[in-house]
Design brief:
The protein is an alpha+beta fold and 879 residues long. The chain contains 23 helices and 30 strands.
């Protein structure tokens, strides 16, 4: 298990641990952000509520002052600027407000007319028209609240409330105003804030006019943009301290209240949770490192050692070193149990490998040796070695006596082994029980479980337990392998399985010997069959070795070579070739082929005495797996029939083309002549031309009919429509299609000639072909005789002419397809007529031949007699 591998257990555990820490941090951060947002919202809500309370109190204070000034502005003396009456009016109003600094009256030009209190430093007569509150009052109708400003006499922040005065026409006639001290607001803010909050009050221009802290009102460094709202949430001052700030706009005055709460006070719970979360994460990380250290040293590294050992055990079972895991076997936990299990597995695998090697070696011996007794002895020896038993025996059926006896034994005394025999039906023998059931039978302690006879034999030979395993084979009688131990011992499943494997090897050895004997006998039979088959081949066959020695020659090859007997194996092939070459022409090509060792074919003419044949000699090299030449096979094939067939086909093509061209040319010529428009033919000439066209057409039809008949005969597709028919009527039908006016034809039939059982159309073709040959090959005027009679239960028909006859050398091939006698001047056919006659006659079960009668030629054929429904010949002359 390599470090950092994507499938490393360390990577998986680290990923799981990281996932746990990640979820913990994510949940903590989620709760932190949620708590922070909730606490900020609570702090802001508290700030807003406090700002609203302060704002209400401030507006109420200002509203009360504004109402007092408005009350003065409504007085007639004030409206008329009655300076004598003003002290009496201003004094009680000033005394009623402890935060009042001055009540005063300005005329419409902004000149101070009166102020209370009166005293030194009077400003009566001064021009105040440049003040913003005067300008605002002169242009408006309602009370005006000035921005904060420092009193020049007291140096304290002041705000002025001015109410414009209007005459009867509504024109501006000055104003009455009150200067209020803002120190009271700072005192109120300090009282409300206590010691932690920071409360600030800004006028409509953004000037600081009151604060709960040490800030100086109207200090230009602490201004607030009137149009800018303080953003909610945390903010930091220049010193870096965090605050939760909330601002509130007072719509009646245009002032703004700012409430700031220290963040460490508002978020104290959150900061405590954050410190707790960090502490928890620190503890988890420290615990994780400790857990990782223990996991690595107590689990992962031992598992790596175990995995490395198991991989070596799988790849090299016999050489895997157990040293890395030996110290782990002392542990009492699952790691130690796994290590001990692997060591036990290693021992089991080594034991199994030893058994497997022994089985393979024994199997190799079984396969490589035909000495059955030696093989069985080896098997018993290996059983003794692997099962650590001193005694074992193999029992087989003695087919002569029908009893089971010891075939081979190791560890038993010879006298005891010779005396052991069991009948197949013995119910007391565990060996016979195993053979009958086909399953192993064991006796763990013969003294307890065995029969008295078996117990007595066991005491005598010194064994206490046994295991009988059946040998099952298809081609040999059942047998049994019996294993004996000197101590009480229940055989385990592994021991039974191992014994059964050796029993199968023993069965295979016995079957191997039997099958080898049978296969040897079958091989000899097959060899004899093959030799017989090759001996009766129509082709000659010569097998020669790489050293050009004859390995085999059949009789047909000996006949081609002119030898009375085939050459014996080991004879030089040159002797056979020397006897063959004189009969071949051209012999040079054949000699070159016989001398070569590669593949090749040559066609030559073979002649011996009066016999001449066409011969094809084919050389086929025989090669081994590595393309090594082992010898060759020489095949000598008679291709005379093939060559004659090729020549016949060529003759057919030539004849058919000629036979087709001649009538077609005549038909075309006479048809063109009749169709000519520039010649007017008389009826006699026209009839003569049409008669010639008809004859040539009949000639074409006759040729096509012959070809079709021949095709049906060769394909075996000829179907006969057999019916009883008078022979005289068949002859008359055949004569109607022929021009017989050039030869006298005599028909000589007995009056009692029975009807024939034939296909009339086919036999008509036979008569027409024979008569057509007689008409064409005999001089005009010579007679033609047709006669018939009954002989040997058939009708024998003779067609005889008195022409020149058939030369003797052509009589043997007269009925072959496409054969025509050379030199016949009148011969214009395709050589199919007599072949078709032979096919039709033989299809009726008869035969046709050329009789040795002269002069002229006499063709004889037989036809079946119609037997009638009762199977007897009809004696009548027709039907």
């Amino acid at each position: 298990m390599g470090r950092g591998h994507p499938h490393d257990l360390r990577t998986t555990l680290l990923a799981a641990y990281g996932l746990l820490i990640g979820w913990l941090v994510a949940l903590g951060l989620l709760f932190h952000f949620w708590s922070a947002d909730r606490l900020l919202r609570d702090a802001e809500a508290s700030n807003r509520a406090l700002a609203q309370a302060v704002g209400l109190e401030t507006e109420a204070w200002l509203q009360d002052a504004i109402q007092g000034v408005e009350a003065l502005a409504r007085m007639e003396a004030v409206r008329r600027h009655d300076l004598r009456a003003l002290p009496a009016l201003f004094a009680p109003a000033f005394s009623a407000r402890p935060d009042a600094l001055m009540l005063f009256l300005l005329d419409r030009r902004g000149v101070m007319r009166y102020h209370y209190p009166e005293g030194p430093g009077s400003t009566v007569g001064w021009d105040f028209s440049f003040w913003n509150y005067f300008q605002a009052a002169a242009q408006g109708n309602g009370p005006v609240l000035s921005k904060g400003w420092l009193s020049p006499t007291t140096g304290k922040p002041v705000v002025t409330i001015a109410v414009p005065l209007k005459d009867e026409q509504g024109a501006f006639n000055g104003l009455v105003a009150l200067n209020l001290s803002l120190e009271r607001l700072s005192t109120v803010l300090r009282t409300v804030a206590g010691g932690s909050l920071d409360l600030r009050l800004y006028d409509a221009t953004g000037q600081l006019i009151a604060a709960s802290g040490p800030l100086i009102p109207l200090d230009p460094t602490h201004r607030l943009d009137p149009g800018e709202a303080v953003p909610p949430g945390l903010s930091r001052d220049p010193e870096g301290r965090a605050w939760v700030a909330t601002s509130l706009f007072l719509p009646r005055t245009g002032w703004r209240i700012l409430v700031r709460r220290p963040a460490d006070e508002a978020l104290a719970t959150l900061y405590m949770f954050r410190r707790g979360l960090l502490l928890l994460l620190t503890l988890v990380l420290i615990s994780g490192f400790g857990f990782w250290y223990l996991l690595t040293h107590q689990a992962l590294r031992p598992l790596e050692a175990i995995a490395h050992f198991s991989r070596e055990l799988g790849e090299h079972p016999g050489s895997a070193s157990a040293a890395p895991i030996l110290r782990l076997t002392a542990r009492g936990d699952q790691i130690g149990h796994l290590a001990r299990s692997l060591l036990w597995m290693q021992a089991a695998i080594e034991r199994r490998l030893s058994e497997l090697r022994t089985l393979l070696d024994t199997g190799r011996v079984v396969l490589s040796s035909l000495e059955t007794e030696a093989v069985i002895a080896t098997i018993l020896e290996q059983i003794q070695h692997l099962l650590r038993v001193p005694t074992c025996a193999l029992f087989t059926l003695d087919e002569r006596t029908g009893w089971y006896r010891v075939r081979a034994v190791r560890g038993l005394s010879p006298d005891y082994a010779r005396g052991l025999s069991f009948h197949p039906d013995d119910p007391r023998s565990p060996t016979m029980r195993a053979i009958r059931t086909g399953r192993p039978v064991q006796i763990a302690d013969i003294e307890v479980e065995g029969y008295p006879e078996l117990r007595e034999r066991a005491r005598r030979e010194g064994f206490r337990s046994l295991l009988a395993v059946p040998l099952q084979a298809r081609h040999v009688p059942p047998a049994a392998l019996v294993i004996y131990r000197p101590d009480p011992h229940p055989f385990s499943e592994d021991e039974v399985s191992l014994a059964w494997n050796f029993a199968n090897l023993a069965a295979f050895a016995l079957e191997h010997a039997v099958l080898y004997a049978r296969s040897d006998m079958l091989l000899q039979q097959q060899t004899r069959r093959l030799e017989t088959l090759i001996e009766h081949l129509h082709d000659g066959l010569i097998m020669e070795s790489r050293e050009r020695e004859i390995l085999y020659m059949n009789r047909r090859a000996a006949e081609w070579c002119g030898l009375e007997e085939p050459c014996a194996p080991g004879c030089s092939a040159d002797i056979a070739y020397a006897a063959l070459l004189p009969h071949l022409s051209p012999s040079e090509e054949a000699a070159r082929l016989l001398e070569r060792t590669d593949e090749g074919t040559v066609e030559v003419r073979w002649q011996r005495d009066a016999r001449a044949r066409e011969l094809r000699i084919q050389s086929l090299p025989v090669r081994g797996e590595g393309e090594e030449r082992l010898g060759r096979i020489l095949v000598l094939r008679d291709i005379t029939v093939e060559r004659e067939l090729d020549r016949a086909k060529s003759a057919l093509l030539s004849a058919v083309s000629h036979e087709l061209r001649t009538p077609l040319a005549a038909i075309q010529g006479y048809t063109t002549t009749l169709l000519a428009e520039d010649v007017e033919w008389d009826p006699a000439a026209r009839r003569e031309f049409l008669q010639i066209i008809l004859e040539e057409t009949e000639r074409l039809a006759h040729l096509v009919s012959n070809l079709l008949d021949l095709s049906r005969l060769e394909a075996g597709a000829l179907i006969l429509n057999r019916q009883p028919y008078p022979l005289e009527a068949l002859i008359a039908r055949a004569r109607r299609g022929l021009r017989t006016n050039t030869h006298p034809i005599s028909v000589q039939l007995p009056p009692d000639l029975p009807p024939v059982d034939v296909d009339a159309a086919r036999i008509e073709v036979v008569f027409r072909n024979l008569l057509d040959n007689a008409l064409r090959y005999t001089p005009p005027g010579t007679p033609i005789t047709i006669s018939a009679g009954v002989a040997d239960g058939v009708v024998v028909v003779r067609v005889r002419d008195e022409g020149p006859g058939i030369p003797p050398e052509h009589r043997g091939r007269l009925f072959d397809r496409f054969y025509r006698i050379p030199g016949q001047v009148r011969s214009s056919g395709a050589g199919l007529g007599l072949a078709i006659c032979k096919g039709f006659i033989e299809a009726h079960g008869g035969r046709i031949w050329l009789a040795d009668e002269g002069p002229g030629a006499t063709f004889v054929f037989t036809l079946p007699i119609w037997r009638g429904d009762d199977g007897r010949a009809d004696p009548g002359g027709g039907g």
